[in-house]
Amino acid sequence: MKKHVYYASEMEELKEEMIQMLSNVSRQIISFDAVDVDMTVKGAANALCLEGRGEGADRLRQSIDAAVAQAEAVAPMFDVFSASRVMVYFCSSEQHLFLMSELDALFAFKQKFGPDAAFMWGIGTAACVGKDSCEVRMLLVDLQEKK
Fold first, then answer.
1. pLDDT tens, 132-146?
2. Architecture of domain 5-145
3. Bridge partners of 33?
4. In whole angstroms, what is the distance from residue 71 CA to residue 43 CA?
5. Rounded Cα–Cα distance for residues 102 and 88 (Å)
6. Helix (H, G, I), strand (E, B) or coil at 58
7. How far apart are alpha carbons 109 and 65 in whole angstroms?
8. pTM over 0.85, yes/no
9. In sequence order, which residues have a C-beta less than 8 Å from that of residue 40 and are 6 or more positions away?
């Protein structure tokens, strides 16, 4: 991602970057497309793009935690869990696909958002991901400022 925080006038730029990111995935297992991205950012006042990386048995949780920690550095004014729309995309290597048990970390993360938050997630593989690691990219839309 070129930047992390986007405002209403920059949503077209954000859509292009997200679509480019999705095109870099080797194989989409649970996929997103341009329509999903468009629906997620349509009419948004702001959006936050985050990335994280995890390794080993707890790689999904580690990648989520790293992305959330990144939010504190790049957008400390926003409450990450106030987003009204969320897209989360995980990539692993083709040799070390995700196990169903690893998704518990994703479901725990989802529970931190309000009950009305629209939450989408996907999984794919990418050649650039190490053998026992994963990368996550998050798009959080319409965040509220911290009180």
1. 899 999 999 999 999
2. 2-Layer Sandwich (3.30)
3. none
4. 22
5. 15
6. helix
7. 9
8. yes
9. 85, 87, 118, 120, 139, 141
Alpha helices, H only, 24-143: 34-41, 59-74, 104-110
The single-letter code of the amino acid at 87 is M
Closest CA to 138 of 62, 9, 52, 58: 52
Domain boundaries, the chain: 5-145
AA letter at 131? K
**Angle at the Cα of 112 (from 74 to 138), degrees rounded to 5?**
45
Per the CB < 8 A criterion, the answer to whether 18 and 1 are in contact is: no
Render pLDDT for 94-124 as a digit per residue (tens, 0 to 9). Answer: 888 888 888 899 999 999 999 999 999 999 8
Parallel, antiparallel or unpaired: strands 133-141 and 46-55: antiparallel
**Is 33 within 8 Å of 69 (Cβ atoms)?**
no
> 26 by DSSP, 3-state: which?
coil
Q: Which residues of 95-111 are buried (b: 16+ CB within 10 A; e: fewer)?
A: eeebeeebeebbeebee
Please give the distance of CA 88 from its chain centroid, rounded to a whole number: 3
Alpha carbon of 94 to those of 69, 86, 101, 144: distances in Å?
27, 25, 18, 37
Instruction: Give the angle subtended at the CA of 55 by the CAs of 50 and 59, to the nearest 5°.
Output: 65
